[in-house]
Amino acid sequence: MLGLMQDWPLTCDKIITHAKINYPEREIISRQVSGAITRTNYGEVHDRARRLSSALIKRGVKLGDRIGTMAWNNARHFETWYGLIGIGAIYHTLNPRLFPEQLKYIVNHADDRMIFLDLTFVPLLEAHQDAMPGVKSFVIMCDRDEMPKTSLRGAECFEDLIDDGDEEVQWGGFDENTACGLCYTSGTTGNPKGVLYSHRSNTLMGMTAAMGSMMNVTGSDVCLMVVPMFHANAWALTFSGPMAGMKLVMPGPFMDGKSIYELLDGEKCSFSAAVPTVWLMLLNYLEDNKKKLPYLNSVLIGGSACPRSIMETFDKDFGVQVIHAWGMTETSPLGTISQVEPEIAHLPYEEQLSYRLKQGKPPLIVEMKITDEAGNELPRDGVASGILKVRGPGVSKAYFGGEGGDILDADGWFDTGDMASIDPLGYMQITDRSKDVIKSGGEWISSIDLENAAMGHKAAAECAVIGLPHPKWDERPLLIVVLKKGQKAKAKDFQKFLKGKIAKWWMPDDVVFVDELPHGPTGKVSKLDLREQFKDYKLPTA
Ligand code: AMP
């Protein structure tokens, strides 16, 4: 017997319509490429997105078409997404930090027929448009008086496009499993692979992320949305924000410590989300300039492991709660969140911190387990570390165009490529990326744990650990450090500092200092590039 409740397809156009009806005045504030701050609200964004949809239909855009967006977080980017979503076209976020070769590959692979871009990216796309023959036209997201002279094919100003549309347009009316957004991941081997979100998966993830036990997105919050929309749906904030009527502040291209501080303070932001690198830059700025964060209550940190030093500094110096999260492009992206649950609420600070530093627990729509290489499930004892596998309605079942073949096992589990343990309370901890884990004498050393421990040194600005070949132990760790401005330290200072904080045999065989670490397109340290950079480096113990 079927239930007798209404069958209402979960399409994402309903999210912005809901925001327009219920929270029309809640603001969306953007820092433009020019640096100027502009203000709009959910009501206006909704109306302009409808006009955009109508103008896009006039230009032949239809259900299932892929449209690229190469843009920072700003209100026009938001309007573009919802303008596309409403008519069943697919926003395809282009990460501007990709190498041109990868960029051309993904635009062609996705067969994007138009690209919306911020002013920043005009030169980049002018240089490469000939290698993207399928792109018929480019829309530049700027005011009319900012419109540059450009050789981009069919270039049009965003504001002209909006003016050409009207609000009388049909939104939705298609199946909730219809494709909604496309985001390529370079986290896998070989060419980047396209993760194709559906309206249903985005709606479920938006609702999930908003839950109190997850990101706790509320209409009383003001969120500085630093995590880019081209990084896995800005961690679902693009959907949970308007669902809850949360005021959004978008930093545009400016993510340095000073700019982030100005927005946090000037807009009285209570919540924010970003990768650890952004928080490191902010904390350095606050320390150098003796600033405080009176309005900020909590920050979500994910994308790579949150170092203990960041969590402790936010706790002790600023009274800001850090919420640690894990996810991937393939998980829409929320996989787990570490919240202080009743079982750990009463624990002394240090003990509680050890749980909060883990990546935490999954929501209802994500199931997870750890296995050995043969696929046998490992115990949830907080000790065994194995391959982390996930499944659920927010997890990819295939990549766009069938790239990479079958990505699920017979029972529907997706191998995340991460190694993890799960403790008896259910908190998952990432121990490493499976390809970054250091194999020493048949045992594993977690590069993440070592990096986090080294980050506790007061002179460390950024740390990375890679395994280098060793004749006796197979591999041994090399610690690579960027020092804070004006700080000095020697290899033996770091080794001395680490003594007692890590297992004896984890001690890095050497420590080298560099001016900067290579970062990948989503701001993570690129271990691949580091391994290449240090491939001829000989450890003193080898
Ligand atoms: P991406 O698809 O670019 O978001 O990358 C996903 C990968 O980032 C995951 O598979 C992890 O290796 C890593 N990652 C994300 N969040 C965390 C975290 N909180 N701690 C450790 N690694 C993380």
What does this protein structure show overall?
The protein has 542 residues and is α/β, with parallel strands linked by helices. Among the domains are: 13-254, 3-Layer(aba) Sandwich (Rossmann fold), CATH 3.40.50.12780; 438-533, GMP Synthetase, Chain A, domain 3, CATH 3.30.300. 29% of the residues lie in helices and 23% in strands. The protein is built from 17 helices and 24 strands. The strands form five sheets. It has an eight-stranded mixed sheet, with helices on both faces. Strands 7-6-5-3-4-8-9 form a seven-stranded mixed sheet, sandwiched between helices. Strands 16-17-18-19 form a four-stranded antiparallel sheet. A hairpin with a 3-residue loop joins β22 (460-470) and β23. The longest helix is centred in the first third of the chain and has 17 residues, at 42-58. The protein is globular. Adenosine monophosphate binds next to β14, β18 and β19.
Please tag this protein with its features.
29% helix; alpha/beta; 24 strands; globular; binds adenosine monophosphate; 17 helices; Rossmann fold
